[in-house]
Structure formats: structure tokens, C-alpha cells
Structure prediction request, 166 residues.
Amino acid sequence: MSEEPERKGAFDVLVGGLDYPMFIATTGSGGEMAGCLVGFATQCSIDPPRFLICLSEKNRTCRVAREADALAVHFVPSSAQRLAQLFGGETGDEVDKFAACEWREGPGRLPILAACDNWFVGEILARHVLGDHVGFLLEPTEAHHGIPFDEFTFHRARRIDPGHEP
Prediction:
């Protein structure tokens, strides 16, 4: 028997036990706005500050972000279940997510979500294909730290059926 399926199964169990924070990325390009719930993201450098956010190549946000100059990254509070469901369970190919939530125009004319008081905007420095996701390397250009919050985590987001095919 091959060790590959056994190794993959063990890896799935290991990473499935992690409970990391979820984010919502929003962007705009060519008059289009897009946004999605993001589970694969991390700070990847302290000096200079850098953040890596990974978007599924299957969703509209990734397609719009490929042409964009920047992304807004929203820290999702635990109280924002409805917003997480909207941005994770609907596809921008079928639903205008921004018509269904409160937002304002922020730095770089990017949509900033009212329910997420903590966010930053990052200039896209590089794009990297990382399997079935595209990694966007961001240099923070503006940030807002609002009220302290409990984060909306991966284990809560697992209950959301993706808006696009997995």
C-alpha cells in the first residue's frame, strides 16, 4: 500500500485541528468590486512588514485581484456570522455582496466593511500560484485598529458551504 494517501490523511487531521482567524478580503479593479472570506493568510515579515493572503483561484475575488493594485484585509469579529456567511457562502458571480451589507469607500477606493472595525489596506507586491490558491504578497499602506474583538475562526467557518465549487 502506498504511503501517500496515509501521509495526506495525517496531514489533513493535523491542519484540520488548527483554529486560526478568518479574514475578508475586498478589492476592486476596472470598475468591479469583489470580496471573499479567507482562511489562508499570515503575516510573513516583520521588517519590512508583509502579509500573505491566499485566494482560491476558483472565485471571482481572485480574478478581480489579479488586475488590482491593492487588497483590503478585514479582521472578522466573532459577532459577524452573517457577514462571514455572505462573503464565504455566496459567489460574486451570482450575488452583489456589497448590496447586502454596509460598506464605505476607503483608501485606494477599496470597499471597507462597516462590520469589521479592524482592517488594513495593502499594496500587492507579488502574486504567486500556490496550488489551488494564489498568494498575494501585501505591503500594508494604511491600517485601522478599532475596538478589541474576539475573532471569527476557521472552525466556525467550516459550517459555511462555499459559494463556488470547492
Residues 24-157 form a domain with the Pnp Oxidase; Chain A fold (CATH 2.30.110.10). The first strand starts at residue 23 and ends at 29. The radius of gyration is 16 Å. DSSP finds four helices and nine strands in the chain.
